Amino acid sequence: MSAEQTPSGTPSPSAPASAAPTGPTDPTPSSPSGRPARSRVPLPPTLRPPTGPPRKPTDARRANVLAGRINRGGDGPCYGLVTDDGRQYALHGTGRGTFAVGTTVRVTVGPPDPTVDCGPGTPATIVDISPVV
Question: I need a surface site. Which of 60, 87, 102, 122 has the fewest CB within 10 A?
Answer without folding.
Answer: 60
